[in-house]
Write a structure and sequence with these properties.
Elements lengths: L13 H6 L11 H8 L3 H8 L7 H11 L23
Helix pairs in contact: 2-3
Length: 90
């Protein structure tokens, strides 16, 4: 059985946004603080920041809210963005 190919890394802006966000006014926010703020576990946030998984719509909205940006400004590119969706007209 052939090994699955690794997914290509597509950089997103979550790390940059996190490092420019402070909760206590002194230091950049930690991954744990952001994970807690959006209601996910640390491992899940790490995977989001490394672009290993796609955020759910809820996670994307919460990330945008925490960082004070639009969802489009997060730099998250759906892995299946090259799919063509054909809708039938009834």
């Amino acid at each position: 059985m052939p090994k699955p190919r690794p997914r290509p890394f597509t950089p997103n802006h979550l790390r940059r946004l996190r490092l420019n966000t402070t909760f206590d006014g002194r230091k950049p926010a930690s991954q744990f603080e952001i994970a807690d703020a959006i209601g996910v576990g640390l491992n899940r946030y790490f995977q989001l920041e490394q672009n290993r998984v796609e955020p759910t719509p809820r996670e994307a909205r919460r990330l945008a809210q925490v960082f004070g940006v639009k969802v489009d400004d997060l730099g998250i590119i759906p892995r299946h963005s090259n799919r063509v969706v054909v809708r039938r007209r009834d």
